[in-house]
Amino acid sequence: MSEALAFLVLPALACTALVGIHAYFGLHVLKRNVIFVDLALAQVAALGATAAFLLGHSPQGPAAHAYALAFTLAAAALLASSRSWSARVPQEAQIGVIYVVAAAAALLLVDRAPQGAEHIRQILTGNILTVGWDELAWAIPLYAVVGFTYPLMARRFTPGSWLAEFAFYAAFGIVVTSSVALAGVLLVFAFLIIPAAIGLLHAARFPTQLAIAWIAGTATAVVGLALSYAGDFSTGATLVCTYGVALAIAGVAHGLRLPQARGAKLDVAFRFARWMVAALLAASGIWIAIAPQADQPVLDALERAFPAIRAAYMDDKSRAIRADADAHAERYRDDALKLRAMESSRRWQGEPLDEAEVRRIASFQKSYNEMIRGEEFVMAEVRKRAREAKRWWIGAAFLAFAFSVVVSLPRRSRTTPAGSPRPGGMAPPADGDPRARR
Amino acid sequence: MSHLVPAGQDGENFQPHPQDLARLREARAVLRVGVDYDLWLDRLLRQSGNAAIQRGAPGYIDASADVALLDVRAGGIGPDDGHAHGRGNPHYWLDPANAGMITATLLEALARLDPANAGRYEANRLAFLARLDAKMREWTQALRHVPPLIAYHDTWPYFARRFRLRFVGVIETRPGVAPSPAHLASLVRLAAAERVGVIVREPHEPKRDADFLAKRIGARIVLLASGVGAVPQARDYISLIEYNVRALK
Question: What is the 3 state secondary structure string of B6-56?
Fold first, then answer.
């Protein structure tokens, strides 16, 4: 536990800071409908830093940062200027063009510098897990300064004016350029859009939206970090998936908060889920009857969860053949691993292996691999044939299972739950539901 | 002679240019690393339409032919600690002793294509191997007391085997996928138990992950080069190995 904490404290702090600033900008980004602007600005910053590198500056030096900032501000000016075209050309299209041109131009520049690709990668693929105090020591003050000064500045400009647009894109560009280097493009996009979307779903006023976005974003980050450690998953990818699940949960919760009876909503959701399960089971039953030799994902998943299911369609002989092949495959895997471990250890200790011995080991490993494949083929073939022989029974079992799921559904209640709208009547507005306030 | 992959670029993730196709169309021979390292070349060879350099033709030279490969593990063996290449680890040229086999393959092909100059090619090869042999003793001596190492990517098994180095783990277990916190935690434990003193990375590999681990375990970072041109000091094959040896010494 203490080891996990030692590894996750800094990433958690970084996530909190990133959610703090990105949820704020995310609400603006969603309102302006410029969803992918962070990708475009980050790519433009990478282009600027690459240009600096080609001109002989250090990739991590102040000149590279200055170039990245200058390119980002130029892109901000371009985006602010092209806002007036958005009646004819959607601004998302303009953002997409800026992104692809910046990415392609960076590739062309990289061709001129042997280590250029690495530099672009460093800018665009941060890793939240390995974030350090030194990085947070400048990122958090930067976010604080931008977070406090931008709203003050924005109030002074006329909404929709060039200056107001430029201030937004410039402030956002400065934040994104640094945050992408900390957390990577995918994760920054999740920080930007998902907490803000959750806030928008559940509140109508900006301060409430922001508060919900901060709480949901931070809590989701903590859950994602814990899952990443517990499951031995890559941290950035786990966090992005956790944010996706959080948005799905927030969407379901939002559905339940609509001005209808909660009990009735839950009933509908429950019935829908049961019908979906029944449909999946029925489709699997029909599929195995039609094509028993094809992939059977539902039956495979059930077998993995409950291996005893095999006994239902495999006879004793098939089960014995399968078990024998499984045992052999396991033994070959074990032997191959032992051989590899022996070869690895002899690289640095004991008598070194000569070339003939290394070749022999490689040859054995190839043979083991072929034999493992052979045993796996036997297992798959025995299973396919057993399924084919009993396909009508298995199909019928699936259909019966699907039928039982459907008939076990309780009959729909005809009574109107308390608080639900009467036919033709209006429900009282739900607190925080934007549609109820219109 | 011209190179498709410019010096210092990552040959595993190379994107060919239109000019490369023109070069292949006019080529009498093509030399490749093989062992799934340069898979992009197969498509390029087909597109070139040059029969002389297609697989099996006299002008097709696979430098990995007859090299004793390490870490052969196709078929899903060791899925958690592997290189992406099931046919074996492709960085075989980092063992200077493999230069004998690689140059023999090259010599055989050149003698077939240009029999008139076969004697000159053979003399050049022998001179090169003699220089390498003289250096080998010096390098082996220099690397006698290197502490256990951790690598960013599994690039160094051949180098480790030749110079009796102990690599206890790799940071990036799956190419292109950032390490998980649990894996980094296990590396920290392993590093403490095995007294790891050096973390090795290449110029094109992420700096921050290696720095993070180095700070945690108190190891020094050593920048190694796996190909000519990856660092300015690695001007040719011998200076490439020389650079790596000096960096680790």
Answer: CCCCCHHHCCCCHHHHHHHHHCCCEEECCCCCCCHHHHHHHHHCCHHHCCC
Give B71 to chain A, closest Cα distance, Å: 7
Give yes or no for a contact between B78 and B170, defined as CB atoms under 8 angstroms apart.
no
Q: Are B35 and B90 in contact (CB under 8 A)?
A: yes
Compute the nearest-CA separation of A366 from chain B (Å). 7
- The verdict on a CB contact (< 8 Å) between B215 and A366 is no
The partner residue sitting opposite A114, judged by closest CB among B6, B179, B180, is B6
Within 152-191 of B, beta carbons closer than 8 Å to A belong to 157, 160-161, 164-166, 177-185
Check if the beta carbon of residue B68 is closer than 8 Å to that of residue A358. yes
The 10s digit of each residue's pLDDT in A329-354 is: 999 999 999 998 999 999 999 899 99
A138-160, pLDDT tens digit by residue? Answer: 899 999 999 999 999 888 888 88
Closest partner CB to B181 (pick from A8, A117, A348): A8
**pLDDT tens profile A227-282:** 998 888 888 889 999 999 999 999 988 877 766 666 677 777 788 888 999 999 99
A252 CB-near residues (< 8 Å, 6+ apart) = A269
Which of A7, A109, A130, A357 to mutate: most B Cβ within 10 Å? Answer: A130
ipTM > 0.90, yes or no: no
Q: Mean pLDDT over residues A14-28, rounded?
A: 95
Q: Residue A60: name the closest of B231, B208, B110 by CA.
A: B208
Q: How far apart are CA A335 and CA A34, in angstroms?
A: 56
Closest CA to A239 of A251, A248, A249, A227: A227
Q: Over the stretch B146-195, which tens digit does the pLDDT of each residue have?
A: 999 999 989 999 999 999 999 999 998 877 777 888 899 899 999 999 99
